[in-house]
Amino acid sequence: MQFIENRTFDELKVGDSAELTRTLKTEDIELFAVMSGDVNPAHVDPEFAQSDMFHKVIAHGMWGGALISAVLGTELPGPGTIYLNQNFSFRHAVGLGDTVTVRVTVAEKKPEHQHVVLDCSCINQSGETVIEGQALVIAPSVKVRRPRVVLPEVHLHERGARFEALMKATAPLAPVRTAVVHPCDTLSLEGALEAGAKGMIVPILIGPRAKIEAAAAEAQRDLGQVEIVDVPHSHAAAERAVALAREGKVDMLMKGKIHTDELLRPVVAKDTGLRTERRISHVFALDVPNYPKPLLISDAAINIFPDLQTKRDIVQNAIDLALALGIDIPKVALLSAVETVTPSIPSTVDASALCKMADRGQITGGMLDGPLAFDNAVSKSAAETKGIHSAVAGDADILIVPDLEAGNMIAKQLIYLAGADAAGLVLGARIPIVLTSRADGVLSRLASAAMAQLFVHHQSSRIPD
After folding, report:
1. What is the mean pLDDT of residues 106-131?
2. Among 124-128, 382-386, 433-437, where is mean pLDDT lowest?
3. I need a labelling partner for 17 at 20 to 30 A (CA). Which of 27, 102, 256, 289 fits?
4. Domain spans of the chain?
5. Longest C-alpha distance within the chain, in Å?
6. Is the peptide bond before 111 cis (omega within 30 degrees of 0)?
7. Hey, how many other C-beta atoms are within 10 angstroms of the C-beta on 184?
8. What is the pTM of this model?
9. Helix 26-36 and helix 61-74: axis angle, to 10°?
10. Is the pLDDT of residue 465 over 60?
11. Alpha carbon of residue 380 to chain centroid
């Protein structure tokens, strides 16, 4: 175990020194900004920083000051030191990647009050002094030796950043005419109206006009020129939305205050619905703080115990969405409890069959591997520990779960325990369906609309003239 030990006033001698070395990383700047609230764009906005006098992102000046404080409090004099005064002269900026050596040196001892004056400096890798000054402290009189405290891990995550990137990607695209089914509460109505305001959709509100207008009044939103299709109840709203889709008048459905089963019933109707030769399935898109990219999970909402052919459609739907989101070759992890084909675990047999189907061109556009346990799918170190050598293992874009129960548990655990943001679509019908939970906020609804808009335009670009 490492220990931290001080040097008392009596032990200190003029000329004694201590130092530490630190290389400035983006995480240092972000964490200092979070802790201090200092979001000066010179530190956190690369575009602005390029136009500033230093032409690069630089550290907060007091980042160096904090390092000096760290040496004083942990090395010289160490624990028990009382900081009285400090002056700094900032000579050069510290940029990303710069390595700074922080040194403090005893310059003077004042026995009357056990005051110690220390010269302080920060020197970069080029030998330039970036900060210099003096500190005045009361040195400790009692010897202290304590185990060094192990600091907690800090993971920085900008909530909503990946969803914002999705929405930004829709900027050059035309809005999609969208049937919003029974938007009779403030949350679903606001989600649709915000998506309209951002140019992602042209909302057509389908439901009882009085309830829609009441929700708008409660949300203090002006419906303006938004088209409203007045129907008596939620069942009629779902049926009318599907009819509009069959007539080619809308290219997307969006769930409002209506149960999923009620919305999907007319969608899957054999003669009057929106069925295709492919099974419909749901895809969660999660922004997980500790995962380096968006993570798609399917199917966690519609197909309870899918057979092999249904799983084939689930995989293809998810790949098609990933392609629409700009992932060149989506990496698909087929999940099970183990990573070997085990006849007594049917999901492992299905996973191996799906991989062979991809080899034979029955699934296209992605790279499949499985069976893989969850840890091997999302953690390279876990995969390496088990000797799994795969381009998919540890770097999956898509997780295909064995059944709805497993998928729902994984998705909800990531949302509620890992702090993931979630969006969702139903695919496999003639048009995409934005399917969000009643608990989802406006951000999730906007992200879902953005995904659907990207999907619609991607699919239309693939249709030959």
Report:
1. 96
2. 433-437
3. 27
4. 3-147, 278-428
5. 96
6. no
7. 22
8. 0.80
9. 90
10. no
11. 19
How do beta strands 3-5 and 295-298 pair?
unpaired
The CATH superfamily label for domain 3-147 reads: Hotdog Thioesterase (3.10.129.10)
- Residue 209 to residues 6, 26, 237, 257, 454: CA-CA distances in angstroms? 74, 51, 11, 14, 30
Sheet holding 82-90, edge to edge: 17-23, 99-110, 115-123, 129-138, 82-90
- The Cα 359–Cα 328 span in angstroms is 18
Q: What is the pLDDT of residues 159-173, one digit of tens each?
A: 888 898 999 999 999
Half-sphere exposure of 30 (CA within 13 A, CB side): 9
Q: Would 3-147 and 278-428 be classified into the same CATH topology?
A: no
Supply the mean pLDDT for the chain. Answer: 94
Q: Is 133 exposed, middle or buried (0-12, 13-18, 19+ CB in 10 A)?
A: middle
Task: Report the CATH fold assignment for 278-428.
Answer: Isopropylmalate Dehydrogenase (3.40.718)
Q: How far is CA 190 from the centre of its chain?
A: 23
Please write the tens of the pLDDT for every residue from 254-296: 999 999 999 999 999 988 999 999 999 999 999 999 899 999 9
Rounded alpha-carbon distances, angstroms, from residue 120 to 68, 101, 102, 386, 439: 7, 11, 8, 49, 54
Do residues 440 and 194 make contact, with C-beta atoms less than 8 angstroms apart? no
159 three-state secondary structure: coil
Q: How far apart are CA 106 and CA 13, in angstroms?
A: 7
Contact 334, 372 (CB under 8 A): yes
Q: What is the mean pLDDT of residues 63-67?
A: 95
Tell the residue number behind the tokens 């389908």, with chain if given. 206
Q: How far apart are CA 13 and CA 72, in angstroms?
A: 15
Cβ burial 394-426 (10 Å sphere, 16+ → b, else e): bbbbbbbbbbbebbbebbeebbeeeebbbbbbb
- pLDDT at site 440: 74
Candidates 136, 88, 131, 138; CA nearest to 113 is 138
Question: What is the arithmetic mean of pLDDT over 14-36?
Answer: 94
- What helix, strand, coil percent values describe the chain, rounded to 5? 35, 25, 40
Q: What digits encode the pLDDT tens for the residues 347-368?
A: 999 999 999 999 999 999 999 9
Which residue stretches of 37-184 are H helix? 41-44, 46-51, 61-74, 161-169
What is the C-alpha radius of gyration for the chain, rounded to an integer number of angstroms?
29
337 neighbors 373 (Cβ within 8 angstroms): yes
| Entry field: residues in the chain | 465
pLDDT at 290: 87
Dihedral, 368, 369, 370, 372 alpha carbons, nearest 10: -120
